[in-house]
Design brief:
Number of strands: 37
Structural class: alpha+beta
Oligomer: single chain
CATH class of one domain: Mainly Beta
Bound molecules: 1-deoxynojirimycin, calcium ion
Shape: globular
Helix content: 10-25%
Largest sheet: 11 strands, antiparallel
CATH architecture of one domain: Distorted Sandwich
């Protein structure tokens, strides 16, 4: 049961401060522990502003707030503080599936009303929620006589940083998040140089801005990450960077078609602008700030979805072994092939099968301008008997995962949502992977603008009505709305494994995932598609490879969170490889998660307890540097023996020289065990920890270094 305590310190009181008492026009609110503090104030020209301190030290200096409109004067200066209210919440809520079962939602809230002193006397509330692990604030525009419709040209929310922090960033692209991360100081951020990316079908980077989450480390060792929560009916926020003053400012994604960035009718609220703050890098991963800032769940029953591992008729297309289309003569999605994958899944404790290229239209997929009406989402190719595959999957206890590639023609998809989901319902299919490769039609709209945000939401809500869970590729970024809409189970929104198969720049370098864990993963679940065993992709792609060891591929099942985790490689790459046992065993839904160590861009180790069992799993990954990491297994229950199976890099393993060199060791451990994980360059370690049976106690020895 959720426990909820609400204290109202002060009901909304309309307080008018005389202009001469400006120094008193500040309102303070702090986190429950008092460490994180926010001050709201009026800057000299009567512009609302805020600043943030942590442990008494300023981390965001005076930063102003405001808006520009198309047909109305800006909301900037000339305002007064017209009222305030405070509130505190301390409650627990349960995730239907997730990184952990119970989540604490504990914050102090300050809502301040700022009103113009003249003219239409327009006003808005700034609402701050301050947690021990960060904060969120948003604008609320209540119904008012002076403001009815708002064509927003931009939102001007500032984040005045205090120094030239180290920063892990990717360019503020209006169309795609599939970029490598860069590691520079704030002064070195140069998004413009990332334009015209050779590996991306679409990209639009108009400013020196960054996408969020963007993560930083201060000289004192404090970690900061900026993002947003609860993005609905509004554009994605990128952050424009001033390299000299270290000022970040919101830069909303726009629409060339409309010429403004957001169209709103009052009353409305913006998404939360968020800042996660932690003294350790791992604390960022453990923070549940982004989901906490979302509303409670809207779906009464989600029992129709179960977290699962899955295989796919997928990697074989990316390797060029088969193709999505039929005209090539190498069609992958045949009835026979699907049955072979189903057999493999059923034999290996893998619950799902994704089939791409099952529907007609792929001959006209990438690189075509006239993509409207190409895909219909209900017509299978003649060599794919969808009813028979669904029947066979049911017989074998495997769930089919539907695939809807829209080729970025969302209007075509919108028109067919009901027919598409009705077919899924008929076949008993409860999840869909959607895709939006290419430039959005109509021209002038971008993947991350308000128009598309509304499209993704419409798909999600329609899917929910048909009991369908959505895993979107080329998505809008995750802002924690899975709390409200749990059927948004996962998404891509990063450079996934697929880049290793075909990118012309060498694929994802070994540092990619140790950065992703502290940036993109703070937003929410990732469909990264781990588990490639044929690291060198031979014989299919002589010029490409995965840039990790095999042991790291196993570790990713634990390190990267998603309630659907792909065993991405071809069945023949797994056959007779003893490392497959880890994929069979590993959980996908968690009671608890603990980050044992980590540094952004370097390494991270996470332990997770499977929900509904006593089993624990541990994953550890490193960048291009090999390292030995000491870990304590004190997350295990005291006094209980566990049989550990450790899948580790072999002595000479190396992501490039010798990536499939691994060892498997079994031993007994307990809460007192301390061990050393030896990670090769680009390597990793994965460990399953199962309560020891009588047999284990007889057969296994205690862990020794
Ligand atoms: C891009 C997606 O990321 C990939 O997973 C998918 O196979 C292709 N689009 C085709 O839809
Ligand atoms: Ca993609």
């Amino acid at each position: 049961m959720a426990r909820k305590t609400t204290f109202t310190f002060l009901a909304l009181a309309m307080l008018a401060f005389p202009a001469c008492q400006q120094e008193q026009e500040a309102l303070d609110v702090s986190s429950p522990s008092g460490k994180l503090q926010v001050r709201l104030l009026l800057a000299p020209q009567g512009q609302p502003a805020y600043l943030v301190t942590y442990d008494g030290k300023t981390i965001i200096d005076t930063s102003t707030l405001g808006f520009e409109f198309r047909d109305a004067p800006p909301l900037a200066g000339g305002m007064e503080l017209a009222g305030q209210a405070q509130n505190s919440i301390n409650e627990n809520w349960e995730m239907p599936w997730g990184e952990q079962r119970m989540v604490v939602n504990h914050y102090n809230e300050l809502s301040a009303t700022f009103r113009e002193t003249s003219g239409d006397k327009r006003y808005y509330n700034i609402v701050f929620r301050v947690y021990d692990d960060g904060l969120g604030f948003r604008y609320e525009f209540p119904e008012q006589p002076g403001l009815k419709e708002a064509s927003i040209m931009d939102e001007n929310t500032q984040f005045q940083l205090t120094d030239d922090h180290s920063c892990w960033w990717q360019p503020g692209d209006w169309d795609i998040y599939e970029h490598l991360y860069n590691t520079t100081k704030i002064s070195g951020i140069d998004a413009i140089s990332k334009r015209n990316h050779p590996n991306l079908a679409q990209t639009y980077i108009p400013e020196n801005a960054v996408n969020t989450p963007v993560t930083m480390k201060t000289a004192e060792g404090l970690y900061l990450s900026f993002h947003e929560a609860a993005l609905y009916d509004y554009p994605d926020m990128t952050l424009k960077v001033d390299n000299h003053s270290f000022l970040l400012q919101s830069e909303l994604v726009g629409s060339d078609r409309l010429g403004y960035k957001a169209e709103k009718t009052v009353p409305f609220t913006t998404p939360w602008r968020t800042l996660q703050v932690s003294e350790t890098a791992g604390g960022l991963i453990e923070s549940r700030l982004i989901v906490n800032l979302n509303e409670p769940g809207k779906l009464d029953d989600v029992s129709w979805f179960k977290p699962t591992k899955y295989v796919g008729i997928w990697w074989e297309m990316h390797l060029g072994k088969s193709s999505w289309d039929m005209a090539s003569g190498r069609h992958g999605a045949t009835t026979e092939n699907a049955k072979a994958y189903i057999d493999f899944a059923a034999a290996n404790n893998i619950g799902g099968l994704l089939v791409e290229g099952w529907n007609t239209g792929w001959e006209h997929w990438i690189g075509f301008e006239d993509r409207e009406g190409v895909f219909d989402f209900v017509t299978p190719y003649p060599d794919y008997n969808i009813e028979e595959v669904a029947r066979y999957a049911r017989e074998k206890g495997v769930q089919l995962i539907m695939h809807h590639e829209t080729s970025a023609a969302p209007r075509t998809y919108d028109q067919q949502l009901d027919t598409a989901f009705a077919l899924m319902k008929k076949l008993g299919i409860h999840s869909v992977k959607t895709g939006y490769v290419g430039k959005i039609i109509p021209k002038g709209e971008y993947h991350h603008g308000q128009w598309m945000v509304n499209h993704y939401q419409r798909v999600l809500e329609t899917a929910a009505r048909y009991q369908v869970a959505v895993n979107a590729h080329e998505p809008i970024k995750d802002t924690g709305i899975r709390r409200t809409w749990p059927n948004f189970i996962s998404r891509e929104g990063l450079r996934g494994q697929e880049f290793n198969a075909w990118a012309s720049d060498g694929g994802n370098p070994p540092e990619h995932l140790p950065i992703v864990a502290f940036t993109r993963m703070l937003a929410g679940p990732i469909d990264y598609t781990p588990g490639i065993f044929n690291i060198k992709l031979s014989p299919y792609k002589p010029d490409n490879q995965v840039n990790t060891t095999l042991a790291q591929q196993l570790a990713l099942y634990v390190v990267i969170y998603s309630p659907i985790q792909m065993a991405a490689d071809l069945p023949e790459s797994y056959q007779s490889n003893p490392a497959l046992q880890f994929i069979r065993d590993v959980g996908v839904d968690w009671e608890r998660s603990e980050v044992l160590n980590g540094e952004v861009g370097d390494f991270v180790t996470i332990a997770r307890q499977e929900r509904g069992t006593d089993k624990w799993f541990l994953g550890s990954i490193t960048d291009e540097n090999g390292r030995n990491l000491r870990v304590k297994l004190d997350f295990l229950p005291a006094g209980k023996q566990y049989a550990a199976t450790l899948y580790a890099d072999g002595p000479d393993a190396h992501w490039n020289e010798d990536p499939v060199n691994f060892t498997i060791r079994k031993f007994l451990v307990g809460a007192n065990t301390e061990m050393e994980l030896r990670l090769a360059p680009g390597g990793g370690a994965a460990m399953s920890l199962l309560p020891a049976t009588e047999e284990d106690l007889q057969a296994l020895k205690a862990y020794e270094e």
